[in-house]
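Example: 3-dehydroquinate dehydratase.
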Amino acid sequence: MKIIIINGPNLNLLGVREKSVYGNKSFEDYLKELKLKHSDLDLEYYQSNVEGELINKLHEVGFSYDGIILNAGAYTHTSVAISDAVAAIKTPVVEVHISNIHAREEYRHLSLITANCAGMITGFGLKGYEMALYYLKDC
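Written out as structure tokens, the predicted fold is:
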């Protein structure tokens, strides 16, 4: 089973930025743990701070992979283009957010992406990515 995790803007700074919100661990360290624990999966990772690059990656993998875990970061709340890209592909997408977007600033409460995803996992820290993996494995 081939699954990709796609992270959006500023998620390259996990472990460094706002540790009280995002924790102390880099995503690369967390990914190593996920790959060890889920060695039965072909698990890939992609991160970009650029909206168009995220869209290009969704288009690239959205017809051939078994699952996509997407944390679009701040683009979650602003990008009709990413939402349209998710709607256009066939691969199931699970939206993940490390923090609870509903417990943060009001402008973060709305996700433009969720309606085109299988579901959203929010507020469980990095563990949310693994929760999404379990869902995709059961699809």
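The domain at 2-138 is CATH 3.40.50.9100 (Rossmann fold).
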